[in-house]
Amino acid sequence: xxxxxxxxxxxxxxxxxxxxxxxxxxxxxxxxxxxxxxxxxxxxxxxxxxxxxxxxxxxxxxxxxxxxxxxxxxxxxxxxxxxxxxxxxxxxxxxxxxxxxxxxxxxxxxxxxxxxxxxxxxxxxxxxxxxxxxxxxxxxxxxxxxxxxxxxxxxxxxxxxxxxxxxxxxxxxxxxxxxxxxxxxxxxxxxxxxxxxxxxxxxxxxxxxxxxxxxxxxxxxxxxxxxxxxxxxxxxxxxxxxxxxxxxxxxxxxxxxxxxxxxxxxxxxxxxxxxxxxxxxxxxxxxxxxxxxxxxxxxxxxxxxxxxxxxxxxxxxxxxxxxxxxxxxxxxxxxxxxxxxxxxxxxxxxxxxxxxxxxxxxxxxxxxxxxxxxxxxxxx
Length: 380
Prior knowledge:
single chain; alpha/beta; TIM Barrel; 12 helices; globular
């Protein structure tokens, strides 16, 4: 495929500049702002992964989406908008979704100088990506496998029918080949791995695979109980810490590692947790992304128009684009009791507090707003 050219003269995405991270507006403006909107553009998917965070919402037939010009009018109201994310399901499974929703959103974002990300399992033919990929900033994929055998077990765990191994092997090989081809063409491919009891011992191997595919970034997130994953075994904090350190010790220094929804904080009473925080903030080419959900991002369902704080299943929709302005919904969320409970801030430690699911899982007895960082990562 042809080489993807530079989008604009915008600041490039690097470990020093992650436009999805709410840290920047919080530290610069003294408050959170709505800078990111995520669209759920489809509920179709050709896979049924065991860890899927939206699995029970997946359908066999697509509904009728809200016209894209109506979505764009809502985005026009957000002067602070910096990023747009597109997710599903598998966003490019339905060519009509690509033509009528995804491509117009990407072109709109490009016209405003807004950064874009699309989440895909990358198992469709390469030609399905080639006619719109040049307008995209980040192609986000999942990689939780040692090879096609793992892929077969994981991605069809909730399939209603038995899927032959040969089919899974073909899809796995296509995903790897696509990642290599797109990376070689200059696409920013970011591969995400979840830390689970299965992946924990094999993360360094998966990291090497990701590096071999040419991916610019490896995102690492602990597994949390949501949707299909709600009954999966979770690791203890000690196990998570050991896994993270093992990966950092064996990483490819040329691959950016981004840790998200990290369950360790600079206000911890445990010195080993504070040491981990310090190391991750001092190591080159490693970043800790602060939780965007509800700090700078809202999610819009393009079928219902519901506006939610992404990934928080226990917080009901906060509004609907048919009746509400996005900025009003975001401000409504900032005054919500759940937000007020978790939106703490320690600038010297570069910390904006916990993801809500993390706090509920591991720190249910903590009041984060009454705690203070026991360290500093800021150079004086």
